[in-house]
Amino acid sequence: xxxxxxxxxxxxxxxxxxxxxxxxxxxxxxxxxxxxxxxxxxxxxxxxxxxxxxxxxxxxxxxxxxxxxxxxxxxxxxxxxxxxxxxxxxxxxxxxxxxxxxxxxxxxxxxxxxxxxxxxxxxxxxxxxxxxxxxxxxxxxxxxxxxxxxxxxxxxxxxxxxxxxxxxxxxxxxxxxxxxxxxxxxxxxxxxxxxxxxxxxxxxxxxxxxxxxxxxxxxxxxxxxxxxxxxxxxxxxxxxxxxxxxxxxxx
Length: 251
Description:
Helix content: 25-40%
Strand order of the largest sheet: 1-2-4-3-5-6-9-10
CATH topology: Rossmann fold
Number of helices: 8
Radius of gyration: 17 Å
Strand content: 15-25%
Largest sheet: 8 strands, mixed
Shape: globular
CATH architecture: 3-Layer(aba) Sandwich
CATH superfamily: Alpha/Beta hydrolase fold, catalytic domain
């Protein structure tokens, strides 16, 4: 059963905390995903087996947390993450972010350099709100969003469509990373991305590596990997990278 922590605006954020050795690992899910996903549970199993502390949680409007998904923004989900980092996760932390969670993890690392000591990004999707608006939406959908304030977009990952709001797109502009000359992250970073990812191009991770600096950031491309990276071999690779970052943080 999850535990809950309350946000400043009164919402309950669900989380699970596994006590153990330092540094703790914290998993940040993707857009419309949750802490019961394959990668989140796999990493918990791995951390439990080696006695490492681990935290997983649901952003507002996701999973078992309060709130409506369509009312959430990147700012909201980042604040939920910072709430968990500030109050639940024992310091230091290795942040692991999947897809949108990779973007959130980077933003959190910039906001909490005293807490996040290392980072693993899985098919990271920085600036995805801008990508949705500029690259994926048709002119008709943009017009619909202007008129109604939202569009309903089909998803290949669940039956119900995903609601994309104008507020989400506008709020995302506050958090763009790829338009920055560089990202001042003084922690070890490892990015993993499938070259057959049809949702987020692996070139996004290549851009991130350039902005973080190859001396701090390793990029691993999986030739036959798709977006989810949830096959057994992908999961084992992800945990190896988490252990690698953990080792570099511990010494």
